[in-house]
Design goal:
The protein is mainly beta and 219 residues long. It is built from one helix and 22 strands. Strands 1, 2, 3, 4, 5, 7, 8, 10, 11, 13, 15, 17 and 19 form a 13-stranded parallel sheet that branches. The protein has a seven-stranded parallel sheet with strand order 6-9-12-14-16-18-21.
Length: 219
């Protein structure tokens, strides 16, 4: 299995930590946020089309915030709650998300590259049609996550639990599922073409594969 990349665990570990300035006021659509620290209660307003470069978010709640088409480059989030937020068609690159909750998120059509999510809970997240490249879900819970029609390349799930994750119509290359604790896949098994499973996972999913192919197994 591929090694999990080292990521900054604390705010002080960020290479741009000394440059961060605290955020004040409401979010603005189309604004550029460079080396800004968002902390505590979530900022008001929306930031559709905004750009976040080398920004940090600690214990921030973004509830229903519109962040559609926003760009997130080298951002770091810890202990955040993103609930019913609109992240559709956004771009993420070299991001780190630690110990955060993403629930009821619209994240479809997004581009997510070289990003690590560690110790996170993703529930009812819509990632349909998204492009994920070199993304690691480490020790995460993915429940009712829809990756239908998504393109996944170099994605891994070490220590993660997949519960009700859908891959219908997905396209995969070098997707490593061997480290997943559980694979709860209700449908879309043909979308697993290009994924790597271990022997135990193959036996676990065999009845579902047979059902998807219309095979009846009788002894």
């Amino acid at each position: 299995m591929p090694a999990v990349p080292a990521v900054p665990e604390q705010l002080a570990d960020l290479p741009y930590a000394d440059l961060l300035t605290p955020h004040r006021g409401a979010l603005q659509s189309g604004a550029r946020y460079d080396t800004v620290h968002f902390e505590g209660e979530g900022p008001t307003g929306g930031a559709a089309g905004a750009s976040f470069l080398e920004c940090a978010f600690t214990n921030v709640e973004l509830h229903g915030t519109v962040l559609r088409t926003a760009r997130w480059n080298e951002v770091w989030l810890q202990g955040c709650r993103l609930v019913a937020a609109d992240l559709a068609e956004s771009e993420w690159q070299d991001a780190v998300v630690l110990g955060s909750v993403l629930a009821g998120i619209s994240w479809y059509g997004s581009q997510v590259r070289r990003t690590v999510l560690r110790g996170c809970k993703l529930e009812s997240v819509n990632l349909r049609g998204a492009v994920l490249r070199d993304v690691v879900f480490e020790d995460c819970l993915l429940r009712d996550v829809d990756l239908g029609g998504a393109k996944l390349t170099g994605v891994s799930f070490p220590g993660s639990t997949l519960d009700g994750v859908r891959f219908a119509g997905a396209r995969m290359a070098d997707v490593d599922l061997r480290g997943a604790v559980r694979l709860g896949l209700p449908d879309g098994h043909q979308g697993l073409s290009g994924a790597v499973l271990n022997t135990g996972q193959l036996f676990e999913l065999a009845p579902q594969f047979a059902h998807a192919l219309g095979i009846t197994v009788k002894d």
